[in-house]
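Repro case for the chain-ordering regression, as requested:
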Amino acid sequence: MKEYDHKKIEKKWQDIWEKKGIYRAQDKSKKPKFYGLIEFPYPSGAGMHVGHIRSNTAMDIIVRKRRMESFNVLYPIGWDAFGLPTENYAIKTGIAPSKVTKQNTDIFRKQLKAIGFSFDWSREIDTTDPKYYKWTQWIFLQFLKNGLAYKAKMTINWCPKDKIGLANEEVVGGVCERCGMQVEKREKEQWMLAITKYADRLDKDLDEVDYLPQIKLAQRNWIGKSDGTEIDFKIKGHDSVIKVFTTRPDTIFGATYLVLAPEHEMVQKLKSQITNWSEEVEKYVKEVKNKTDIERTNEDKVKTGIELKGIKAINPANKEGIPVWVADYVLPHYGTGAIMAVPADDERDREFAEKFKLPIIKDYKKAGFEDFGKRITKFKLRDWVFSRQRYWGEPIPVVFCDKCGTIPVPEKDLPVELPKVKNYQPTDSGESPLANISKWVNTKCPKCKGKAKRETDTMPNWAGSSWYYLRYVDTKNKKEFADKKNLKYWTPVDWYNGGNEHTTLHLLYSRFWHKFLFDLKLVPTGEPYKKRTSHGMILADDGTKFSKSKGNGVNPEDVVKNYGADSLRLYEMFMGPFDQAVSWNRDGMVGPRRFLERVWKISQKLSKNSSLSVLKLLNKTIKKVGEDIDAMRFNTAISSMMVLVNEMDKEEVGVKDYKKFLQILAPFAPHITEELWNMLGEKKTVHLSLWPKVDESLLEDKEIKIVVQINGKVRTEIMINVDESEEEIKKQVISNDIVLKFTNGGEVKKVIYVKNRLINIVL
RNA sequence: GCCCAGGUGGCGGAAUUGGUAGACGCGAUAGACUCAAAAUCUAUUGAUGGCAACAUCAUGAGAGUUCGAUUCUCUCCCUGGGCACCA
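-- result from build under test --
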């Protein structure tokens, strides 16, 4: 072929690669393994997004390089297909979510294949496949067996639009994370997972993993570990105590009053002794209860509160009776829901004390505090609300029997499959649409064989994604979620890249599930991911998010058609630093495409040997590209290859050296490099060839240029020999014509020499 | 309000972590090729002054440390993201 035509080569090689199975991971291998993971996509009806391509290409480049470094690589793909958009689509159109999911995954698969990602397609998984969610349900039963799944009646966040209960983690700024609707409060029986039991380990074990510092910090802030002291305050004339949590137990001598959250259980217990109960306190407590979190916290910092008259607590430090208040700025779910106020030391407490004329003790002694409480660790993290009143999720495998109570579905009866329904709308009472299918709901109790009802709640879509990386190591296993030997060989994941938006939700949940499975000795490591990085978003050319309503999306298929997958991959890697958000530029595709055309053109003019300048630059580039890939600096890797191609364009290039260049370009542009590699007579794929070695002897120059500064300003540059001594170089510089012009007989105060870089003369 | 990123030509961005600011790419201008256009090639391209050699200024603003600051310190302004009175 004389000219580069991506249409003739891309599909061709994709088919050959698939037929030969060159990207298949080998479960039995003596090679060292490398498990590279991307977050499996949600197959939305809109098809693949340019953002998917950016993150998938990055990991694709990394795993392709690892293969060329003789690693046995696992780079799998699947579908995180349960979720609201598909269900909402079903509500609108009446089309079954399973059918929509099938359509969407077919589109996604075709689109992903057209980009040339080196996924091992033989391991494709789908969270909505009963063969997969059988094991999601099975893991839930293990949680239940071990007391980590429990039912609780609790105030939940209720989205009136989605008609669904939301986990605290899914409420962003008081509104539903998905639809933006103001969240209400409702009482509801919910399945919960006790993630808080793992809070300490989830925090501590971050020390063992290689996550980006920001990611660790975000997880730590979310878990919110804080060490402090729990102190009992006795109540005068009452036998119970108010437990207070403080990080500053040394300030107890300055504590002049207590504040309880209005929801605090002691408020109800002390009711009969509170003299202003009916006229003030009761009303205030009710008001707070009706407030959403956002109203409660958005009061322009004007604090409200009511004193519980008739109640006095005793400060254990000085035995003085102090007043007790309720105020909504104290939250029931953090600490003990009660604080001791030290207005002399704490800004909020002072503000509150000044407003309500409470005593402030300025000088108090700070010694001897340790006797008054016990050391304790508190976390912000709350248990995970695991129930959804929706159709399109894994049914929670539990039945309710009047005689026997809540009974888990026996493991042999898994999976509990989703039945077909006619109407996907949640019921008016907010129950799952499953509640309407009496045939499915009414069942036999596994224990007494009497009448029983199935749980109609389903799992949140975080469930299937909490363990999918484990299934990839053994996707077809019918006996267990994955074979132990496979787990031992492949896990942990060596490198996991994903979106920033998942650093507190998905990442934390999957670490929690993993630790639980580790405790049951079902997985061999305490952490699922050795290394975690994250990518920046791709924004529209105006710097805002892509959105359907604006119609500013970019269709990757059009780009592939016009420019080719290789150009698209290169552009997305070249457009900016990988961890930062970048704007899509319609004209940006041109540069990478031209680059590939020049790469092609050079193949038509190869000689026997390369010029020295090409040889030197090639070596430098091999080194830089290798380092840049490992550090995810794809943009500079590409620019250095562009510099090399510019040089090769002008100079003589030998076949052997050109092939080395093809090898380092191969992870970025797999199709064109394979075609050229093949055209040059290679029979085996470039993608399993050995990554070229750097010839260190070619990296160093004997003659180098150094910069000459006078008083810190660049005035000229000179060539020096690397073997020359500092003395000789200084002498040479001082007698330089241009330097003499500036020194002009003046006194040289100081000469600073930075080896092989610059020399600065201070006058 | 607090925390984390970030602010560099017309645009996306680079800068060996204190050592030539603007690599690489896009765009633009001029020329070559062409009947013409596209593509390609060649040259120029931060600003100001100058015929030129060159000089001065310039990395959000202002100060500081230093022989030397895009890089370090302080104050302030702006953009994006996260958290929401956390005891």
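Ordering looks correct now. Residues 562-698 of chain A form a domain with the Isoleucyl-tRNA Synthetase; Domain 1 fold (CATH 1.10.730.10).
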